[in-house]
Design a protein that fits this description.
Layout lengths: L2 E3 L4 E6 L4 E11 L2 E8 L2 E6 L5 E6 L2 H6 L3 H23 L3 H16 L6 E2 L3 H4 L8
């Protein structure tokens, strides 16, 4: 099963109780399925991209914070820790996953309306080296 962690951050939409909630994170593709990983408070929230529904959370602790101190380290953490959990989930769900997602997509559309478009997020200000020029 092909697994890909996308380095380009994106603006995703999570399904809230009453509305769509905007959040920046990274996409992980597992086979034909798309998930997003978003740091929220003291957890990484892992949600399915097309429905915005939460799949599971991974708690952050001191070790996690050290392992994700740079963008490159964070992407490696996603590839080494979160992606394998998603692979196991997709393999365990098997043929049941696609109809479940279709059902969740219908529910979120009826409850929250159409999901806004997912867009690339420009992180150059966050990841750019600090300038020596003083203003």
């Amino acid at each position: 099963m092909k697994v890909e962690v996308i380095a380009q951050p994106k603006m995703f939409w999570l399904a809230g109780e009453q509305n769509w909630m905007q959040a920046v994170g990274h996409e992980i593709r597992v086979g034909q399925y798309r998930f997003c990983v978003i740091g929220i408070g003291e957890v990484f929230n892992i949600s399915e991209v097309t429905t915005g529904t939460k799949v599971f959370e991974v708690p952050m602790n001191g070790l996690t914070l050290m392992l994700t101190s740079t963008k490159e380290d964070t992407l490696a953490f996603f590839e080494g820790v979160i992606a394998p959990k998603l692979v196991r989930l997709v393999e365990k769900q098997g043929d049941k996953l696609k109809p479940q997602l279709k059902k969740y997509k219908k529910i979120t559309k009826e409850t929250l309306g159409k999901m806004p478009p997912i867009e690339d997020f420009d992180d150059t200000l966050i990841t750019a080296p600090i300038s020596d020029i003083k203003h």
